[in-house]
């Protein structure tokens, strides 16, 4: 193992609501089966933004200092002992998901529901799982997936959110020739659009409150967009005859959006809930009367490697969603920008060049 290991790394650590601090810390030495990455790009996710703006989301609260960040790429710089399949200088995306492999859900092939899940940059557990907003990161080699040589680090860092969307789309079964509604055109909604089109959806109608988001939706494959703040009646047209859509993906976590999906999906259609929020009320009679299926979707499993393959050869082009880049030294400004949905989509941090 090379001894060329930096002594210090900069990192962004969150202490509580809007209290994000740039700090220095020692760089760990990669152990057996680990690698040291020189981080390249990392995206600010909706959960990161909730931690920053609100101190958490729903029951998940920031209870101790946490380094956010769970969608990132980096360059392999040092290989620990017993590492194979990775090379110095190789660009990789980091899979933040670390299921235990032994619990009752892992043993049944359901690692997404691992009862001992460790997910980087998450405040769900205590102690919190530290994330990737730092210049240098030691990580198990098994979590690194090669990004090839044709795409940028920013594109590679989109593997994690795309994996979330591929998993959501897989929940809907065969989409070939289907009509799809996507409510919410933020980063996840935009990637769901691309994933549904890749899966063969014939039409994808997208709703949002912001014109900038809807413009990006077209570039990601939407066939029609509706600004429901300005023109709600355009969506109401799809409610006639008990609904027109085969499948809806609800990506906004807004109660009005879910209600509109319930109204616009045909009887025995499917709604996949992707966005997360606190408790909301639902029109139960409509769900029962139309025999709708409403299912949730969280995270991913094997979809991570698939996501990176799709990005690496640009069968899914993620470049339109990357709206802003900030160096880690401007992390606070990056989080503030990410909160401005009138202009921002996927805001990424960049690191030492």
Brief rundown of the structure:
With about 350 residues, the chain is an alpha/beta fold.
How large is the share of residues in beta strands?
25-35%
Quaternary state of the chains: single chain
Low-confidence residue ranges: none
- What is the architecture of the largest domain at the second tier of CATH? Alpha-Beta Complex
Number of strands: 19
Give the C-alpha Rg.
20 Å
> What structural class is derived from the secondary structure elements?
alpha/beta
The CATH topology annotation of the largest domain reads as Quinone Oxidoreductase, Chain A, domain 1
Order of helices and strands: EEEHEEEEEEEEHHEHEHEHEHEHEHEHE
CATH-level-4 superfamily name of the largest domain: Medium-chain alcohol dehydrogenases, catalytic domain
